[in-house]
Structures are given as structure tokens and as C-alpha cells.
Amino acid sequence: MQLSISGRHIDVTDALKAYVRNKMSRLQRHDDHITNVHVILSVNKLVQRAEATVHTNGAELFANADDTDLYAAIDALLDKLDRQVVKHKEKVHDHRVRSN
What we know:
Elements: E1 2-8, H1 14-30, E2 34-44, E3 47-56, E4 59-67, H2 70-99
Parallel strand pairs: 1-2
Antiparallel strand pairs: 2-3, 3-4
């Protein structure tokens, strides 16, 4: 899985990068076919936002989360992406089982 992290109006520190890498490894437990993940961290006045696009076989998943704390926004983002990845994997698996 190739992971790219960028920031808008924020300097992405090594601690933030390590935190995002650690959290994104949770996605790979559910689906081994994730090829590319692009995370954008941004700050707009008091709102911290985390956005991510996940490229996997047959789909491109997107999620975003807002919070006053950037780490909480990253956690919420990962919860959303986790649900989407599991749902996509079940959908693909069900489709393959039915076609046989």
C-alpha cells in the first residue's frame, strides 16, 4: 500500500505522519488489495479536517471528517474508511459467490 500524506495550511510533522501510518495499517487488515491511499490534512480557522481517498481493486473510496482536534478527526476518518472498506469487500465477495 502506497501512502501519501499532504497538508493544506498546515505543516505535516513527523508525529502526524507516524500517527496516520499507524492508523492506516488498520485498513490493510481488512483488505489486502488496497493499492494507494492519499490523505489530506487541513486547517481552516478552528476546524481541523482529515480527508482520504483509498484506491482498491474495483473502487475508489472517499471519506472526510471534521473536528476541533486533528487527531480526533483522523480517528473519525479511519472509522468511516474502515466501514467502507469492509462493506466493499463484502460486496465484492458476495458478487463472486453468486456468479459461480
